[in-house]
Amino acid sequence: MTRHFAAEDTLFSAEDPVTVIGTLVKGSVKTYKLLPDGRQQVVGFLFPGDFIGSAIFRTNRCFAEALSPVEVCVFPHASLQRLMSEIPALEHQMLKLAHDDLDLAQEWMLLLGRKTAQERVATFLCLLFEKAKKRGHCGAPIDLPMNRSEIADYLGLTIETVSRQLSKLKSAGVISINGSHAIELRKADQLAELAAGGD
Amino acid sequence: MTRHFAAEDTLFSAEDPVTVIGTLVKGSVKTYKLLPDGRQQVVGFLFPGDFIGSAIFRTNRCFAEALSPVEVCVFPHASLQRLMSEIPALEHQMLKLAHDDLDLAQEWMLLLGRKTAQERVATFLCLLFEKAKKRGHCGAPIDLPMNRSEIADYLGLTIETVSRQLSKLKSAGVISINGSHAIELRKADQLAELAAGGD
DNA sequence: CGAGCGATTGAACGCTCTCAAAGTGAGTGG
DNA sequence: CCACTCACTTTGAGAGCGTTCAATCGCTCG
Fold first, then answer.
1. Mean pLDDT over residues B120-149, rounded?
2. Structural domains of chain A, ranges and CATH numbers in brackets
3. From A60, which residue of chain B is nearest by alpha-carbon distance?
4. Which of A36, A108, A115 sits opposite B199 (nearest CB)?
5. Integer distance in angstroms from the first to the last C-alpha of chain B?
6. A199 to B103: CB separation less than 8 angstroms, yes or no
7. Which residues of B touch A159 (CB under 8 A)?
8. Which of A160, A197, B38, B154 makes a 20 to 30 Å CA pair with A107?
9. CA-to-CA distance for A34 and B191, rounded, in angstroms?
C-alpha cells in the first residue's frame, strides 16, 4: 500500500503509535527530535530507497516531515510483525539496517560533539555527494531538498553559520552554488580533507 | 567463555576484525570514535548486563576501553552467527537492543547539537541515576567510573566546563560530590528540569 | 613528607550565536 | 510584462558561551 504526503506534511510524531513503516519511494524526509522549548535536532535525512519507521517500537521516538511531495510504500504494522517472525532473513536485514543507522548516528555524535563549523558543513556535503553517487549521479550539480534551517538543525549550527561556511567553500572553489538548492562538487579531495579535520 | 581486561585496556579498536562480542559481566567500558588529530567523542558507557560488540559488522566501527577491571562473557563470532540464524528470538532481541541504542544515540545528537553545557551535564547525571536505580541503587551516592575527561568527551565539552557545571549544581544543592568519583542526588525534580531545558 | 596526576578555579580569548540589514528569487496580481 | 510581496538567504557587526591557558588545590601513592 502506498501513501502520499505533501511537502511539509508530518508523516508521524514522537510518542504517537507507529502508523508509517515502509520504504520511501519518492521525495525526501527529515526525521528530528525536539526540546520542550522548540529547539530542534534533525537526526536524519531520508531519500528514495531508504527504510522509514521502526518495526520494533510501538510508538515513534522522533518526528518525520516531508521535505517535498513524498510517496511511501507502507507495510501494515501487524503484517510486518508476522513477516519478520516468519522470515528470519527479513529480520536479519532489519538488524543490518539498524546497525548501519546506529553507526551513522555515532559518526554524527562525533561531528556534533567535536567538529568545527567548517568541518561539519564539509562532512555534510561529502555525505550528500556520496549518497548521490550511489544513486547514479555523476558530476552534475545535486539538489538540496532541505533549506538552510534544516541543514543547521542537522549540524548543530545556525542558518547564518551554515550560509557563511558554504560561501567560504564556494569562494575557495571547492563547490559551486546555483540558487541555494543546487550544489556542484569541484574539488572532492579538498572537501574530504576539510571534512576529516586537520591532521 | 569469559575474558578479562585491566583498567585502561583496549577491548577492541575501530577497523579491526570483531573479536569481542558478548555481555559485560563486571566493570565498565567506554566506546568512542576518533578524529585523525586525536579529538575524541565517547559514544557510550557500558555497565554490567550491557551487550558489547556488533554481531553484524565484520570490523569494529569504534574503540572500546575498560574504565575499570572488566569481565566479559564472550561469544565466538562464528557460533553467534549460527545461533542467530537458528534462533529467531535471539535475532529479535538483538534488533530490539539495536533500536534502543539508536534511539539513545539520537537523543544524544539532540544533546550535542542543541543543549547548553548545564543541560548536558544535568542530562548526563539524570541518565546515570536512572541506570543506577534500575540496578537497585536507592538514595546512596553512585560511583562514577569515568573521569572528567571522559565525561567531557561524552558531552562534547571540555573538562573545565564539566567541572564548573558540576560545581554549580553542587552549590545549588542539587547534588553533592564526594572525592570526584561519587555523586549523590539531592533534588531529582530540579535536575530533571535542568536536563529537559527551559520551557 | 614530597611527588604527581586529576580536579577545581580564575582570567582572557575566540568561535559561533544573536541581532540587524540588505540581497535574491519565486509567486501573485494588476 | 512588470511591480509588488514575502520568504529565504546572504552578509555585517557585536555579544556571549564555552574554550584555552594558567595557577592552585587535593587526593593517592611511594
1. 93
2. 2-87 (2.60.120.10), 116-196 (1.10.10.10)
3. B103
4. A36
5. 50
6. no
7. none
8. A160
9. 19
Could you say which of A96, A105, A108 has the minimum Cβ distance to residue B56?
A96
The CA R_g of chain A, rounded to the nearest whole Å, is 18
> Does the beta-carbon distance from B197 to A99 stay under 8 Å?
no
3-class secondary structure per residue, chain A:
CEEEECCCCEEECCCCECCCCEEEEECCEEEEEECCCCCEEEEEEECCCCEECCCCCCECCCEEEECCCEEEEECCHHHHHHHHHHCHHHHHHHHHHHHHHHHHHHHHHHHHHHCCHHHHHHHHHHHHHHHHHHCCCCCCCEECCCCHHHHHHHHCCCHHHHHHHHHHHHHCCCEEEECCCEEEECCHHHHHHHHHCCC
Per-position pLDDT tens, chain A of length 199:
999 999 999 999 999 999 999 999 999 999 999 999 999 999 999 999 999 999 999 999 999 999 999 999 999 888 888 888 888 899 999 999 999 999 999 999 999 999 999 999 999 999 999 999 998 887 789 999 999 999 999 999 999 999 999 999 999 999 999 988 999 999 999 999 999 886 5
| Average confidence (pLDDT) over B141-164 | 97
Query: What is the arithmetic mean of pLDDT over B138-149?
Result: 92
**B132-141 burial, b if ≥16 CB within 10 A, otherwise e?**
beeeeeeeeb
> Does pTM surpass 0.85?
yes
Q: Which nucleotides of D are covered by protein (CB under 7 A)?
A: 8-13, 17-22, 27-28
Helix axes A88-114, B88-114, angle to 10 degrees: 20
Nucleotides of C strand lying within 7 Å of any protein CB atom:
6-11, 15-20, 24-26
Contact A94 B95 (CB under 8 A): yes
Taking the alpha carbons at both ends of chain A, their separation in whole angstroms is: 50
Strand C within 7 A of B148 CB: yes
User: Pick the residue with more confidence: B162 or B88?
Assistant: B162
Give the closest residue to C17 (Cα–C1′). A158
